[in-house]
TrEMBL record:
GO biological process: metabolite repair; nicotinamide nucleotide metabolic process
Family per similarity comment: Belongs to the NnrE/AIBP family.
Function comment: Catalyzes the dehydration of the S-form of NAD(P)HX at the expense of ADP, which is converted to AMP. Together with NAD(P)HX epimerase, which catalyzes the epimerization of the S- and R-forms, the enzyme allows the repair of both epimers of NAD(P)HX, a damaged form of NAD(P)H that is a result of enzymatic or heat-dependent hydration.
Location of the YjeF N-terminal domain: 14-211
Tagged with keyword Repeat: no
Protein name: Bifunctional NAD(P)H-hydrate repair enzyme
Cofactor(s), by name: Mg(2+); K(+)
Length: 505
């Protein structure tokens, strides 16, 4: 996959970069640049509207104070409320000294802010305790104002820049103008709900590099997966090809009552371009010998598929609707044994079974990808779901290291980690995907891309992006987010795959 253009910095890495930038630039440069960027954004998008700025005690508050002065100079009506502070950091202190005093309001924010722009400059990446009562009251006021535009500087107050955890009462931004580099917490977990549109301003530090921390505790830096990072996904097909050129994939799943999950994964694989797709059904006496709506799929009882040495299976997808009983555990063990030299996607029930029976997971010679949702990830790591969600990037990396696997930790802002700890957060997707079967579809899609010869990085990140982009495309057409179905994601993903210029970024 080509080097991506959209880095995400964990907070330790960000502080290192901040430090390097401060050394490289004349003193007191960054805060005026941050305020200038905010001023420009407001004038470009909302010229003519009054602006209310809420300022905190640190440098985030300092950004707000300088912004107030700049807007005032541009004749924009500005009101400013600042939390009580004993001592400000140097840059914020300068900003405080230079603030035209008439802009400062006393007491709590009040008045009708309909039509106003409300700027959150309360706390940025320096927030490290629970919010105090004043801050919570001010945030509640800001979040309640109907008809106002809400803009967060750097990060919405209350949101964790690394994890996307939102404290109660976190600012609800329409737009977040984030400084220096983008942050994972703006894109995963609750990040998207609170950050709104994310605009990045590097404050002229594009060329600044920093020695980044390499300790295990910090997440370092990763990437946001965007369309531009998925070039191999859109490679066109040569004429001189045949079905064998695009790989043979086998799905093993579909235990009692769960045939649909295996069919969804298989149909997704077919529609994403796999040359041939076998479906091994784990149910003892499958009711289906053919998928009448998709007769191109080759349905087999699991035993016959696993015993078929000459099928040329180049990728396995195992787990979709497999079940978790003893029979399913046996099928999984047999499949992982058959697939140890073949790229494999492990999903759903197979992950639960792997967690319960680690001794039945054979050593692997080929790469593999695990696609857990948070509860499955928790079982694999022996912790609870809350611990996974508390730091999705770190936990995806832990899981990837534990199993020497690519890991797709699903949910809002899906996190991908490679075995060596390189990580990304998906930039596509929406809550339309929160419906049964979309995970099966994702597993089939990643499998299909592997079957067509994409390398692991490209297939996993490309599949995750395309899956989310399909949901966005459907929603843009009014098919979702409410009531979007997993089957519709398959068709939309095929459509996007065949429409390289699609406008979804
Ligand atoms: N230093 C730099 O190079 C730049 C900093 N900038 C801004 O500065 C921000 C970071 O500034 P700071 O490190 O000062 O951090 P913040 O402005 O986020 O706040 C830190 C201050 O708040 C206090 N604090 C933390 N949690 C609190 C809580 N729950 N209740 C009450 N007080 C609490 C801290 O003790 C500290 O005084 C960035 O997010 C960005 O907005 C920008 O101006 C761009 C450049
Ligand atoms: N709120 C959401 N925002 C974005 N993506 C979501 C959301 N909820 C679910 N998804 C995606 O939908 C898929 C659901 O997968 P999974 O939970 O395994 O479902 P199933 O087992 O029913 O197929 C994953 O790709 C996940 O990332
Ligand atoms: K803020």
């Amino acid at each position: 996959m080509a080097a991506t253009s959209h880095p995400l910095f964990g907070s330790t890495a960000l502080r290192a970069l901040e430090h390097a930038a401060q050394s490289a630039l004349p003193p007191h440069t960054l805060m005026p640049r941050a305020a200038q960027a905010a001023c420009l954004l407001i004038l470009q998008r909302w010229r003519g509207r009054p602006v209310t700025i809420l300022c905190g005690p640190g440098n985030n508050g300092g950004d707000g104070l300088v912004l107030a002065r700049l807007l005032n100079q541009a004749s924009v009506p500005v009101r400013i409320w600042a939390l009580n502070v004993d001592k400000r950091p140097a840059d914020a202190e300068r900003a405080w000294r230079d603030l035209p005093r008439g802009l400062l309001q006393s007491g709590d924010p009040k008045g009708d802010a309909k039509g106003a722009v409300i700027v959150d400059a309360l706390f940025g990446i320096g927030l490290h305790r629970d919010l105090d009562a004043d801050t919570r009251r001010w945030l509640a006021w800001a979040n309640e104002q109907e008809g106002a535009v809400r803009v967060a500087l750097d990060i919405p107050t209350g949101l964790d820049a690394d994890t996307g955890e939102a404290r109660e009462g976190t600012f609800m931004a329409d737009v977040t103008l984030t400084f220096l580099r983008d942050k994972p917490g703006l894109h995963t977990r609750s990040g998207q709900d609170h950050a709104g549109e994310v605009v990045v301003d590097m404050l002229g530090t594009d060329a600044v590099t920093a020695a980044l921390p390499s300790d295990d505790q910090s997440i370092g830096t990763g990437n946001l997966i965007r369309r531009a990072d998925c070039k191999t996904l859109f490679v066109s097909r040569k004429h001189d090809t045949h079905k064998g050129s695009f790989g043979t994939l086998a799905v093993l799943g579909g235990g009692h009552g769960m045939t649909g999950a295996a069919l969804l994964a298989s149909r997704a694989a077919l529609h994403l371009g796999a040359g041939k797709v076998f479906v091994g059904l784990a149910e003892a006496n499958p009711a289906l010998s053919c998928d009448l709506l998709q007769p191109e799929l080759m349905l087999r009882p699991a035993a016959s598929l696993l015993g078929k040495k000459d099928a040329g299976i180049g990728v396995w997808v195992v787990g979709c609707g497999l079940g978790t009983d003893q029979g399913a555990a046996d099928w999984l063990a047999a499949t992982l044994h058959a697939a140890r030299e073949t790229p494999t996607v492990v999903d759903a029930d197979a992950l639960i079974l792997m967690a319960a029976n680690p001794k039945r997971v054979p050593a692997r010679k080929a790469a593999w990808v695990l696609t857990p949702h948070p509860r499955e990830a928790a079982q694999l790591l022996g912790c609870d779901t809350a611990a996974i969600q508390a730091n999705r990037v770190a936990q995806a990396r832990r899981l990837a290291a534990k199993y020497s696997a690519w890991v797709v930790l699903k949910g809002a802002g899906t996190v991908v980690s490679s075995p060596d700890g390189r990580w990304s957060v998906n930039g596509s997707g929406n809550a339309g995907l929160a419906t049964a079967g979309t995970g099966d579809v994702l597993a089939g899609m990643i499998g299909a891309l592997l079957a067509q010869g994409l390398d692991m990085d490209d297939a996993v990140r490309g599949g995750v992006w395309l899956h989310g982009a399909a949901a966005q495309d459907l929603s843009a057409r009014g098919i979702g987010p409410i009531g979007l179905t997993a089957g519709e994601v398959i068709a939309a993903a095929r459509d996007l795959r065949n429409r390289p210029e699609n406008g979804v970024t």
